[in-house]
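A quick aside before the break. I want you to see a complete sequence-to-structure record at least once, exactly as it would be stored in a machine-readable document. Don't worry about memorizing anything.
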Amino acid sequence: MTPEVAVLNFGIGNVSSVVRACKYLGVKAVLTNESKVLQQAKRLIVPGDGAFGGTLKELARYKLIDPILKFVKSGRPFLGICVGMQILADFGEEFGHHAGLKLIPGKVVRFRNSPGYKIPQIGWNQLHKSDALWNQSILEETRPKSWVYFVHSYVFVPKEKKHILATTKYAGEVYCSVVKKGNITGTQFHPEKSGLVGLTMLKHFLSE
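That is the input. The structure line, written in tokens, reads:
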């Protein structure tokens, strides 16, 4: 039976809450680190929690990088959450310089130190519209200024503004909080921890 959605389980990432959110929405998520299962799935979620370089190292150790690239190339819906979004970039600067998956041109850099702000950002913050349209995306039913839950010290800086679907403000910066390119979507926040707003986004992803 073809899995509706595969959730990548490679030793890093908050996989349990993603699986629970999918189950709540009536979709069975299959936890896997097997290329064969991944390639059979209709959709793929790469959860996040962890550092950029460490995540790529674990993906390589499990021999999952090529299967991910093959999945994305197939045109099926892909969702990266937190560091799962960041690894889409060309490279990241967390604890050194690390090559990313190079699926969306850009880089991952640390928040600037700003008086009065704690790094990492942990907690709720708002989504703001970019120039991109939210229809036919996971944000289709999301209102601007909706609150979602973040845990991160680094941000994705896309090379092209057209790939920025939403932004958020923190530590004196306006940064990309949702990125999209074709069948690829990435969220810097955790939709599975963002209440009804996040569940609505996941519902859209799971129905693509």
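Two observations worth writing down. The longest strand covers residues 173-181. The mean pLDDT is 93. We'll return to this after the break.
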